[in-house]
Backbone:
C-alpha cells in the first residue's frame, strides 16, 4: 500500500469534512464568521493538497 496515496486520501476526507462544517455553520449562523472562514480555508487547503497527492502518486506493484 502506498503511504502517499493513503495520506492523500486522509487529507481529502479531512478537507471535505472542514468544508461541510464551515458550510453548515454559515447556514445555521451559529459561530463567528472568522472561525467559519478559517475552517473553510483550511478545509480547501487540505482538499486540494489531498487530491494533488492522490493524482500525482504513481501506482507501484
Residues:
Amino acid at each position: 500500500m502506498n503511504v502517499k496515496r493513503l495520506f492523500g486520501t486522509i487529507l481529502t476526507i479531512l478537507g471535505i469534512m472542514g468544508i461541510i462544517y464551515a458550510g453548515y455553520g454559515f447556514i445555521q449562523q451559529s459561530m463567528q464568521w472568522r472561525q467559519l472562514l478559517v475552517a473553510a480555508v483550511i478545509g480547501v487547503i487540505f482538499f486540494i493538497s489531498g487530491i494533488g497527492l492522490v493524482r500525482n502518486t504513481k501506482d507501484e506493484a
Summary: The helical segments are 3-28, 33-56. Residues 15 and 43 are 4 Å apart (CA to CA). The chain has two helices and no strands.
